[in-house]
Amino acid sequence: MRPTGGITLGDRYDLTDRIAIGGMGEVWKARDKVLGRIVAIKILKEEYTGDPGFLERFRAEARHTALLNHPGVANVFDYGEEEGSAYLVMEFVPGQPLSTIIERERVLSPDRALTIVGQSARALSAAHAKGLVHRDVKPGNLMITPDNRVKVTDFGIARLADQVPLTATGQVMGTAQYLSPEQATGQTATGSSDIYSLGVIGYELVSGHRPFTGESQIAIALAQVNDDPPPLDASIPAPVRALLMSMLSKDPKQRPASASALAAAVDAIRAGKYDDALRAVPTLAAFGLGGGAATGRTEAIRRPATSRTTAVSTGSSTAPHTASLPVAGAAAAGAAGASASRSADGDAGGADRRWEDQQDAARNRRRSRSPWTWPLVALIVLLLLILVATLAGNGLFGGARTPAPATTVTVPSNGSSSSSPPSTPSSTAASSPTPSTTSSTPNTVDVRAAAYEGRPFRDVRAELETLGLQVRENPQPSDTVAANTVTGLDPTGPLLVGSTITVTYSTGPAQVTVPGDLVGKTRAQAQAALQALGLAYREEIVAGDQPAGTVVQVPESGRAVDPGSSVTVRVSRGPTATPSAPPPPSPSPSPSPSTSSPSATAPSSSPSTGPSSPSANGNGSPGRGKGKGNGNAGAVDGTTPGSAPTVVATAPSSALAPRAQSAGNGRR
């Protein structure tokens, strides 16, 4: 399947724009129809998916990569196969690859380079801890986000790429400029191989060029194996040079022991804590980081001759010339050439001696200068200034006074090292950033963004205000940068004291507005809508006339809340059934004459003829027959409260009065 815009993969991912074309396939920007988010999809070429063994390894690697969960790693969301093409669904990282920044800026400041190296090392450390080796660390696989965060991409793909034979497509050698010596010679790549590749990137960032070049990919790979990297310029701080050179060591044992140790050394060097850097990477001492580096001295870097002096007695034969060897044997010849070239120098290697010779020559040139050179230059400049001031005071320049030279306060990069010892701030430059009272020209300060980015906004504002600058706040939400962390400054460089500088800082993730149309929806619809916005669903069951499961109220509706907040949704229990009235009691059948005498009454206008009894005097005791004063016979048995009503049968008094009297007498 050839990917084109408008195609839907897995009935879920709509391809929109092609981002890049690589050796392994194409990367497309796509929209996830289920979750409504933008993703990046890497679709492999058919020549790779046609191999069942490769596909199986690719599936396993995709599963392993998906286990990574680190802010410096582009996450893997999904994997699929469609019409013979396999694809990976990954996190879409906004920004640009480091390769684009290198093409545009060519050289970065040492501090900025260390920041990129340190962040990349932390991401690699997370992968190494899971047993994953990147194997293709290069600027194109390091994405730089708008807030200057590094995201390492294409984990696992490179691991599978070097399973492909070199003669198949040549793609393995496509990035030979960043291959470690062990990879170039066909050995097993380890976490140390990723550190070497990252060292090549750091070297390129501070120097503007790669350490090894050649007319072909094979020639570059052989240079990685045989040649020592050219020394970096002395203008680069000595600790930075030592760290990068240790990362580029041919012997993996001379490199930082792990990516986490490398990240710790980067932090220590940026903070000027060289003892901490040495504890993190002890081999830095072999590359010049020690007492000399801590005091700013640029002593010659003398590497120990361990593991190299064993070949001294073999003679001074030079390495075999492998440039004309066939490509098929280049890797093996490269390994042999590396061993021979390292043993040919005799002591610590020709590159070390060249490094030391250059440093010695530089020191000799400095020593050959007359000690009076700089004092004489300063005296001449002072005399010229006095002359100009005198002429200005006499009105020879139109009465305008020549201002004194502007005082510049240089703000060093945060924690960056310098090859010169730190000087004590003068009373006119560093201790008082306000304009001088004796000069009509205001002072200036040199502000570098790298010195403040990533630091708390409160600290940055206080420091800039101390320098005499007016700070304008520019808060911006960010999903990746912690709240109150500075992400940028504008303008930078030399600034006049009293000028305004805009400081952009993160306010944390942007707040989410709770939808206002949830009332009337079902429980499932409300839950899905909230989860799509990254909000947690919290339910309360309440009484209501709506059908059961219907949303009747959302108290936070329309409010802005933080992502991940719980939103209370009140759901109807359903209408409550109205209780029906109890049916009226059915009347009991009328008693027969033989059994109704105790409850029968006969109206009579004459008093009873029977003897006086408790039933006839109207004052019968409780529980017995009660008679009314008018002579009517009440119920013989008194009824207790709550008992069923007594049914009374009426009859002419002439028929029933004697029987009632007899009954009354019988009860007495």
TrEMBL record:
Q: Give the compositionally biased regions (Low complexity).
A: 593-619
Which biological process terms from the Gene Ontology are attached to this UniProt entry?
Answer: negative regulation of fatty acid biosynthetic process
Transmembrane parts of this sequence: 372-392
UniProt GO molecular function: ATP binding; protein serine/threonine kinase activity
Q: Which residue windows does the record flag with biased composition (Basic and acidic residues)?
A: 350-363
Q: What is this protein called?
A: non-specific serine/threonine protein kinase
EC number annotated for this UniProt entry: 2.7.11.1
Q: Where is the composition biased (Gly residues)?
A: 620-632
The alphabetical list of record keywords is: ATP-binding, Kinase, Membrane, Nucleotide-binding, Repeat, Serine/threonine-protein kinase, Transferase, Transmembrane, Transmembrane helix
Q: Where is this region: Disordered?
A: 298-323, 339-368, 408-444, 554-668
Domain of life where this protein originates:
Bacteria
Q: Where is the composition biased (Polar residues)?
A: 306-321
Does Transport show up as a keyword for this record?
no
